[in-house]
Write a sequence for this structure.
């Protein structure tokens, strides 16, 4: 799976590609990135994407012979893998919480 596709899927949601396009009514306070949840999530996903791309580039450089530092490449790939696993676990916990709230009866 492509990292950019995964990033867009996590940020936009798999089935909300055209549904939220006209609903961009954020205030200037919310658009600075750290004051809103969506901004923090977008920054975290961007950081995750950068880590994945950096790890992929390190592996390509190692295979092509542009670098010979296996240690740093392994550290980069391990960090990228752990970051992706953390993001997936956070997504799973968020979905579980959403489903529990959805199933509550009042």
């Amino acid at each position: 799976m492509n990292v950019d596709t995964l990033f867009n899927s996590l940020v936009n949601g798999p089935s909300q590609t055209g549904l939220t396009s006209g609903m961009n009514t954020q205030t200037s306070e919310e658009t600075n990135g750290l004051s809103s949840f969506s901004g923090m999530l977008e920054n975290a996903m961007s950081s995750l994407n950068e880590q994945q791309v950096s790890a992929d580039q390190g592996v390509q450089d190692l295979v092509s012979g542009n670098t010979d530092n296996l240690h740093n490449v392994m550290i980069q790939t391990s960090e990228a893998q752990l970051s992706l696993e953390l993001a997936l676990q956070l997504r799973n916990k968020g979905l579980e919480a959403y489903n529990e709230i959805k199933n509550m009866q009042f």
